[in-house]
Amino acid sequence: MTERSAAARTTTGPADPLDLLELGGSLSDEERQIRDVVRRLVDDRVRPHVAAWYEDGRAPVRELATEFGKLGLLGMHLTGYGCAGSSAVAYGLACQELEAGDSGIRSLVSVQGSLAMYAIWRYGSEEQKHRWLPSMATGAAIGCFGLTEADHGSDPAGMVTRARRDGSDWVLTGGKMWITNAPVADVAVVWARAAADGDDAGRVLGFVVPMDAPGVTAREIRRKLSLRASSTGEIVLDDVRLPADARLPEAVGLKAPLSCLTEARHGIVWGALGAARDCLATALTYAGTRHQFGRPLAGFQLTQAKLADMVLELQKGQLLALHLGRLADRGALRSEQVSMGKLNNVREALTIARQCRTILGANGVSGEYPVLRHANNLESVLTYEGTSEVHQLIIGQRLTGVNAFG
Ligand code: FAD
Q1: Considering the entire predicted model, what is its pTM?
Q2: Which of 22, 126, 385, 389 is the catalytic position?
Q3: To which CATH superfamily is domain 143-253 assigned?
C-alpha cells in the first residue's frame, strides 16, 4: 500500500459533517471567504431573532438591508454602480447562507438584487442606473418587482395592468399582487402591457415607479402562513402618471421580465438548500441527544436511513448548484438549466425539511426549532419564481420541442 492511499484510508472525514463530499474544497479562497462572512452575519443578526420575526409576521427589512448593503450583498453579482461584481457562485453561496437563516431573509436579498436591481441594470438607461443602483446597493433604497397579478400568476402574459401614452407621459393603471418588499419599498419595477393604440402597442414594457408617486398604494398581505419574516404586498396603480424616462428603454416584451426571473431563480437553486441544510443540521443534533427505547434516535437504523438519504439529496443538489453557478460564470447558463436546478433543489429541500420534522417528533412543530418554519417557507419558494409545474413544462418543452403550457 502506498503512503498516499494509507493516509486516505485513515482520514477522519471532512470538518463539516454535512459536507461528506467535501464540496467546500471545490471553492476558491474568495468564495469560501464570502460564504463564511455571510454565515457569521446570519449567526449574529438573523438566527437569534428570526423565530420572533416569523411569529410576529414582520422583519426589520430596512435595518437588515443596510447591514447587507454594508457587506456588499445587494446586487453583489452585478458590476458597476456601487455593486460588488462577485461571481455567480459567490452569490449562490451567499444565498445558501442567508436561507439557512430564513427563506424570507434570502428573498429580501434576491428581490433587491436579482429582480429589481438586475432589471434596472440590464434594461435601464444610464440615468436610471445612476439614480437607483448605488442607493439600492447600500440598502438605502429598497426595491420590489411587480409582475404577478391577482388573476395572472403562472401566465403573466395575461396581465391586465396597462400603460398608455398621454403626451410624452405614461399612465399606468392596474395592480400587482404577492409582491415581496412592496410595503416597504422606495421603488418598484412594474411590468405593464402597452395600450393597443400607441407606440409598442400591446407589448409588455417595464417602468421604474417611485412608490411615493401619486396613485401608487401598497398594502401588506396579512395572514400568510409562510415566509412570515418577509414583507409581501399588493400594489394598486390608479392612473399613475410617469414621465417618459420612467420606462426601461431596453425592455420590450415578456422576455425582459422572464430574464429577470432566470436571474433570481439561480439564487433560489442555492438558497433552498441552505434551508434544507439547517433542517438537517438540527435533526442530526436532535437525533444524537434524544433518547427513546433506551438509545439515541440516531442509533436506530430507520433514522440513519432518513439521514443518509437526506444528506445524499442535499449534496446532489449542491453539486447541481455548483455546476450551474460555474456555467453562469462562464456566461453559458441557459434558462432550462436553471429550471432543472429550481425544480430539483426546491422540491428536495422541502422533502428534507418535512423528513427532518418527523425526526423531531412533537418538537418538530415548535417554533423553538427552525424546521417547520423552513418547511412552511419552502412552500412559497416552491411556488414563486415559477411553480414546479411551470419548470416541468419548460424542461418538457426543451426535451420534446412541444409547448404544453396552454
Ligand atoms: P397559479 O398560476 O394560479 O397556479 C396555481 C397552480 O396551477 C400551480 O400549481 C401551478 O403550477 C398550476 N398551473 C398553472 N398553470 C399551469 C399549466 N399550464 N399546467 C399545469 N399546471 C399549471 N410575484 C412577483 O411578481 N413579485 C414578487 O416579488 C413575488 N413575491 C412572492 C412572494 C410570495 C410569498 C409568494 C407566495 C408569491 C410571490 N410572487 C411574486 C408571486 C408568484 O410568483 C406566483 O404566486 C407564482 O407565479 C404562481 O402564480 P399563482 O399563485 O397565481 O398560481
Answers
A1: 0.96
A2: 385
A3: Butyryl-CoA Dehydrogenase, subunit A, domain 2 (2.40.110.10)
